[in-house]
Amino acid sequence: GAPGLHMYTLNLEKSVLEILTNLGLLKDSMERRQLPWRPRIAGKPEDVRPIFWANRPRSYMSRTATWDDFPNGRWGDSRSPAYGELSEYHLSELHTVDEADRRAAYGVELSGAADVHALFAKFITGEIKRLPWCAHLEEETEVIKTPLAKVCANGFLTINSQPAINGKSSDDAVHGWGGPGGLVYQKGYAEFFCSPAHLAALKAVLPQKPSMQYSAVNSKGEFETSATSKVVAVTWGVFPDQEVKQPTVVDQDSFLVWKDEAF
User: Fold this and answer.
1) Strand pairing partners for 250?
2) What is the distance between the alpha carbons of residues 55 and 37, in angstroms, rounded to a whole number?
3) What are phi and psi of 162, to 5 degrees?
């Protein structure tokens, strides 16, 4: 038989990963998942990223391809990353589905905001397979799928999220990363579009939730936040004989860069 087989993904590796998983060739993949996001195949060491591009990693890697060094250990408070300019390439994932397929999924016409809300909720429940900001749902979303769908139906249109995780084993099949013997943690996180009125309603109840912080920006770049730090770790792990790892952060400067791509 053939000694090996090459699979060409054309930058969309999901189908190849499913083939390898079904063949049982990735059964030990958790041991090799050293970070909660897929690292670059080659290049300088990198162990921390802002969360905003979690569903668009190709765009992030393209916009940071010219960096001489990547953050190592911590994403510094004083860092103002020089991201590459936004181009049609970074938006290409919006156009990878045939227009007829998009019309079949989203409908030919929308009668109002409620129709948009319903589309986002259908993506969360699996009735729609993708959105322009999300090629697919991450497996960890399953545990928060019901409240996320309700949030979307009520006008908070989520495009990125993660559940709160408190001390899961680093070997966990869904949430684990970093190798065996560790514990991993996540802050609950949700990123969404909403109207100014919805934002005002949310801000009105936040004083009752002192552990919650928010950052908001509109298409004009008008920004506000309740956070007291410009950089906040939202994923971290504790491993034997190692410093605490913080591979995913919320960073204000990166958020303002991301907003142009999101809008």
Assistant:
1) 232
2) 10
3) -155, 145
Q: pLDDT-derived band of residue 88, with 50, 70 and 90 as boundaries? A: low
Per DSSP, the three-state class of 24 is coil
What would the DSSP string read from start to end of 38-101? Answer: PPPSSSS----EEGGGTT-HHHHHHHTTT-SS---SS--TT----PPPP-GGGGGGGGSS-HHH
Q: pLDDT digits over 143-174, tens only?
A: 999 999 999 999 999 999 999 999 999 999 89
Which residue do the tokens 């990878």 mark? 96
Q: How confident is the model at residue 87 (pLDDT cuts 50, 70, 90)?
A: low
Distance, CA of 56 to CA of 132 (rounded, Å): 10
**CA distances (Å), 258 to each of 133, 159, 177, in order?**
12, 12, 25
Q: Which residues of 19-41 are buried (b: 16+ CB within 10 A; e: fewer)?
A: eeeeeeeeeeebeeeebbbebee
Q: What's the rounded Cα separation, in Å, for the pair 8 and 182?
A: 34
pLDDT in tens, 236-256: 999 999 999 999 999 999 999
What is d(CA 194, CA 233) in angstroms, rounded to the nearest whole number? 24
